[in-house]
Amino acid sequence: MLKIGLLGAGRIGQVHAVNIVAHPQSELVAVSDKFDEPAEKLAQMHGATVRSSEDIIADPAIDAVLIATPTDTHADLLEAATAAGKAVLCEKPVDLDLKRALDCLARCEPHGKPIMVGFNRRFDPNFAHLKAAFDQGEIGKGELLSITSFDPAPPPVSYVKVSGGIFRDMAIHDFDMACWMYGALPDKVTAIGSSIVDPEIGKAGDFDTAVTTLEFSGGRIAVIKNSRRAAYGYDQRIEFLGSDGLLAAHNVLENTIEKITAHGATKAKPEHFFLERYAKAYQIEWNSFIEGVQGASPLPVTLKDGINALVVAEAAALSAREGRSVDIAKEILR
Amino acid sequence: MLKIGLLGAGRIGQVHAVNIVAHPQSELVAVSDKFDEPAEKLAQMHGATVRSSEDIIADPAIDAVLIATPTDTHADLLEAATAAGKAVLCEKPVDLDLKRALDCLARCEPHGKPIMVGFNRRFDPNFAHLKAAFDQGEIGKGELLSITSFDPAPPPVSYVKVSGGIFRDMAIHDFDMACWMYGALPDKVTAIGSSIVDPEIGKAGDFDTAVTTLEFSGGRIAVIKNSRRAAYGYDQRIEFLGSDGLLAAHNVLENTIEKITAHGATKAKPEHFFLERYAKAYQIEWNSFIEGVQGASPLPVTLKDGINALVVAEAAALSAREGRSVDIAKEILR
Amino acid sequence: MLKIGLLGAGRIGQVHAVNIVAHPQSELVAVSDKFDEPAEKLAQMHGATVRSSEDIIADPAIDAVLIATPTDTHADLLEAATAAGKAVLCEKPVDLDLKRALDCLARCEPHGKPIMVGFNRRFDPNFAHLKAAFDQGEIGKGELLSITSFDPAPPPVSYVKVSGGIFRDMAIHDFDMACWMYGALPDKVTAIGSSIVDPEIGKAGDFDTAVTTLEFSGGRIAVIKNSRRAAYGYDQRIEFLGSDGLLAAHNVLENTIEKITAHGATKAKPEHFFLERYAKAYQIEWNSFIEGVQGASPLPVTLKDGINALVVAEAAALSAREGRSVDIAKEILR
Amino acid sequence: MLKIGLLGAGRIGQVHAVNIVAHPQSELVAVSDKFDEPAEKLAQMHGATVRSSEDIIADPAIDAVLIATPTDTHADLLEAATAAGKAVLCEKPVDLDLKRALDCLARCEPHGKPIMVGFNRRFDPNFAHLKAAFDQGEIGKGELLSITSFDPAPPPVSYVKVSGGIFRDMAIHDFDMACWMYGALPDKVTAIGSSIVDPEIGKAGDFDTAVTTLEFSGGRIAVIKNSRRAAYGYDQRIEFLGSDGLLAAHNVLENTIEKITAHGATKAKPEHFFLERYAKAYQIEWNSFIEGVQGASPLPVTLKDGINALVVAEAAALSAREGRSVDIAKEILR
Predict the structure, then answer these.
(1) Contact in structure between D77 and D117 (CB atoms under 8 Å)
(2) What sign results for the dihedral spanned by CA atoms B94, B95, B96, B99?
(3) Where does the record place the GFO/IDH/MocA-like oxidoreductase domain (chains A, B, C, D) (predicted)?
């Protein structure tokens, strides 16, 4: 039984808490949050205690921490936790600043502790199934990957301002998905964006709609479409064209009901947002983390993966700003 | 080039006329109808002449006739046309009275002329594809066939009264489909019905909603669902459960558009009624008739097939009336 | 917190145990089974104790029992448990013998304890959604209900012999679904069956493939198709034709992946069997039972409902045996 | 009855010939081709005569010509035909060289004759339905349009070399579709490409896989995915995200059959290539041309539209070559 400290009792921390508690080999012993109320509520619900992050990290009885705090604290907590000998599951992104993230990697690695970054979508059973089918050669060589990733509604502009922008905040999941599918970092990134959904987002210097193309070695391409608003909910799809065919992961719908009337045939919408759509993915993510920490299988998402996605995001932001393709090796990793 | 006489210039006669004219090996030379106006209009449109049925049948220059007149004239015209040496394509049903239909068969057969009954659905590319897949063993042994067959709206009660009833008028297509799929006549027929769509139909002694089960040798079953009303249009589907799987022919939709909004994901309705849904089937039916008459391939629907469907309809009507299963060999064909 | 005794530690008992334990307001305190091993294993896994059924029923500290024992013990345990003041959730069927089930109802009712029969499918979110849409009038008046209910593979003949037959054992779920949808018991039942899947099932006096039609007041019809074998898994669908349209509950597929190659476009099969397909339904069923026992809402499935389904099954078996429609009021409930 | 001269008796000329002949208000009187055999075969099949292009254009009895010759002859023939007072339907593209195309426009316009460019996809009933739904505001303001356009197999490299490249030859259809949907020419074009399908295509200086993003005024975006190879056939889809939802035009499948076995649920592939997929579109296109020439409705695709698509193609080719976004007003139309 692994004893777990949860840093961060917000929305995503609450999702993880349920899975930590439900897992037969993990136990939630401590919760921290900068606000007392959510921490206490969560601790009480699951029989844990409220403690400071420092205290949790320093406690030798705690085996692993889950970092679900605001982004700007991730790198510091990662470094402290690994230094203290903890296994860590850290929510994405590692940091909004690539340099800081690279430093974090350099400081954490020597401790040799298991670190996993929370790219939850890799654990979605549908996407995992698509990836497995691709790896088994079911569509031959991968040529053109398409990812559709729309949120139901834009976040408040106040959030946009501190989010790092659509590429680092939202598309980063899709960049990880593309790198994972191809098993590589792209060579070039080309992005465009606009703020057609909410002009205030544009005034804040960000986009709400964007298209990014990634060029991988050998002529392999990925294209990622992002929008901060799909009136019908959360649109999360993948299509992968290969030399022998196409694999598609369609949306998960709210139910299987179809109604046919004089007005047409109506089915349900996609699951509304990530809490619904990825509920099972979060469970599987936690299972994978536990298995990885126990050495039963390698950790499926590394800190390096987290940084790679950030590298692509950095390149995309630069590309969209300057209206040209960005060479990752020469301009981002130089 | 086969010279064709068309008997009957109503809705279905008009459909056939277009296909006769469009076929490179058939020519519409004469049209008859008990009403002058539609006959003249149709003849004029396609460069044919209006003549009486007797005259058309007697003309040695005419190779084949297509009987699209009211049902109660089918048997007489069939007999006259085959006696006169014509090949015949006759709309279903042969006659509402089984005994009359059997007499017709007995009188027509000796002439040895090609006769085909217009079970258009056999020529629907989807149903034909399903049948071919089944015959190729793609689902193993056939066990349970389900046919959904709903019209968009009930006919006027005046028509219902002379229609022969839902089993002889509407379900007869589905009975033919079931016999065709299994390549056999059923042993037993069990039917129930109600007049929930329009009580006036019930007062006229008919049903508007019915379910018929057919038991074929070896325990093979078919179930046919009929309704005179589907608010969304013409519902024409087949599902065939076999030992190795299931084959389904879904409806043909009006288009491929899907609209997804906060209210759900809406697709098009099925094609509205038989003229739209079976437009292609009627073309292929005519091609098959021409090929059969020219000896290029056997006629795919025989007069015997037309009578078999009527036998099932007779049994279904008796079953529904008496609330019990009807044995075809003992009670209908005795 | 309700203290629960679980009678029966077999496959379905194990499913319930997990949900009892996971529910915040129920606690699994005791397990009984005629075999020691499964009872001990289950009790240990969930921190409960193994006791005899009698002991559990007699224990005043236990609030409710869940009866998941072999069918022939259901009625006795129901009577004993309600007499001892327990709330009861009893797996279907109440008894294979209708008279015995009616006696049970007569004996249990006076105790006034909450009794719910485990028709899990009512709690399937898709079917529940369909029912709600129907009740809200989305397709107008219900006219023709169709239920497809196929198992992935036939049970062993040894089971078939004690099962009560396909109508009491398997179709009973669908009969409950039909009664629930229409909110009524049918007037007439007409069924046919065959043993085409496995002739040994026929030799044992049962069918493996059956079609049952139910006639409800006002001309409303339901048709139920059952097969003990669908090579592709568990096929559980409903279609409801109403005056204004059609509602369909499609199968739940294993995933959302589609692969398109030169051989066609392939999607996943339906969830394999009831444990997968109805996992969520069992959870919701348990929630509903707890809410009902606590008085928060009425119990959604009563003992009377369980008996009604049995009445239909009795009529179906008689109908299939005698090749005629069976009048429920005159022949079954007389 | 309009008398039509058909210039070009190749594959696409043959498609048009059938529609010209079938239309009640057009008559195919003359055919030209640089090769005698196809011209004679086509003329004979449809009762037309073989003549030279010059002769056809000079004949005052001919009302309209359809230009289906090789691309490098389009502009000259357009100019000659309009100068001779003919209405013209010209296959795309107007010319591979934008300057030449602009000159052609300048020379043709003064004659005031109806000219239509053959962007057949606008007449596909599905895309037309999507466009109409969009124009009626069914998804609100258009924000992100996605076009998937894959051919079943790459053309021979010999063709690639004279094709003008993937943007002018293949994507031009999609560029027209995007301009038509938004009712505008984009401001900026950004494209990338690779030759992963066939490296020989790369050696010939072209791409076989490409992604183009178009930026329209107000932040509206279109993204176009092209591949010269989809192992499953012709993939032609559109998705349009708007402020209120999404409209999608799915592929047209070969049939409606679904087969479900232990290996999954398989449906048909898309229609194989443009002759099958767009058969109906070519008919409707011809109808629209006839209506336009007769003044019944404006011509739905103008010569200007043909040039606009070429402008976008020019920009895309430049963008892909230089790895940067291209400003249409400043760089292409300067």
Answers:
(1) no
(2) negative
(3) 127-247
- Which of B143, B225, B243 lies nearest to residue C144, judging by beta carbons? B225
What does the pLDDT average to over B283-306?
A: 95
Of D126, D245, D256, the CB nearest to B259: D245
pLDDT value at residue A331? 97
Identify whether D133 is part of a domain. yes
Element of type H or E holding B38: helix B36-46
| D325/D319 Cα distance (integer angstroms) | 6
Please say whether the beta carbons of C66 and C6 come within 8 A.
yes
CB contact under 8 A, C230 and B211: no
Provide the domain count of chain D.
Answer: 2
**Chain B nearest CA to C105, separation (Å):** 32
Q: Give the model's pLDDT for residue A334.
A: 81
**Phi, psi (rounded to 5 degrees) for D149:** -145, 95
Give the Cβ contact number of residue A222 at 10 Å.
Answer: 27
Nearest CA in chain A to D202: A219
Final residue of a structural domain among D85, D113, D141: D113
Give A266's contacts in chain B (Cβ within 8 Å): 263-267
Cβ contact (<8 Å) for B269 and A267? no
Q: For residue C8, count other CB atoms closer than 10 A to its CB.
A: 28
CB B42 within 8 A of CB B48: yes
Residue B24's pLDDT band (cuts 50, 70, 90): confident
% helix / strand / coil in chain D, to the nearest 5?
Answer: 45, 25, 30
- Environment class of B49 (CB within 10 Å of its CB; exposed 0-12, middle 13-18, buried 19+): middle
Residue linked to tokens 């006659």: B95
DSSP conformational letter for B91: P
Look up the domain containing A58 and give its range.
2-113
Touching chains, B (3+ CB pairs < 8 A) = A, C, D
Residues 6+ apart with CB under 8 A from B86: B5, B57, B62, B63, B64, B65, B113
Residue that is written with structure tokens 């409800």 in the block: C216
Q: What is the pLDDT of residue C297?
A: 87
Please tell me whether residues B12 and B96 are part of one structural domain: yes
Query: With bands split at pLDDT 50, 70 and 90, how would you rate the model's confidence at A150?
Result: very high
Q: How many CB atoms lie within 10 A of CB B109?
A: 14
How far is the C-alpha of A257 from the C-alpha of A279, rounded, in Å?
A: 21
Joined tokens for residue B289:
């008739």
Mention every residue, 6+ apart, whose C-beta is less than 8 A from residue A60. A85
Strands (E), D151-300: 188-194, 209-216, 220-227, 235-242, 245-249, 257-261, 264-267
**Which of D141, D219, D324 has the CB atom closest to A194's CB atom?**
D219
| Selection from A232, A134, A116, A224 nearest residue A173 by Cα | A224
Asked whether C89 and C2 are in contact (CB, 8 A), the reply is no
Instruction: Please give the C-alpha separations between residue A60 and each of A8, A50, A55, A86, D166, in angstroms, as whole numbers.
Output: 20, 16, 10, 9, 62
Residue C302 lies in a domain: no
Q: Which of D113, D132, D166 represents a domain boundary (last residue)?
A: D113
Structure tokens, C41: 């294993």
Of the candidates C125, C261, C262, the beta carbon closest to that of A255 is on C125
Can you tell me the distance from the alpha carbon of D181 to that of A34, in angstroms, rounded to the nearest whole number?
50
Instruction: Please judge whether A220 and D194 are an interchain contact, meaning their C-beta atoms are less than 8 angstroms apart.
Output: yes
Burial class (CB in 10 A: 0-12, 13-18, 19+), A230: buried
Torsion of Cα atoms, C117 then C121 then C122 then C127, to 10°? 180
- Counts for chain D of helices (H) and strands (E), in that order: 13, 15
- Sign of the dihedral through C-alpha C106, C108, C113, C115: negative
What interface predicted TM-score (ipTM) does this complex get? 0.96
- Cα angle value A113/A127/A143 (rounded, 5°): 105
User: Are residues B198 and B245 both part of a single domain?
Assistant: yes
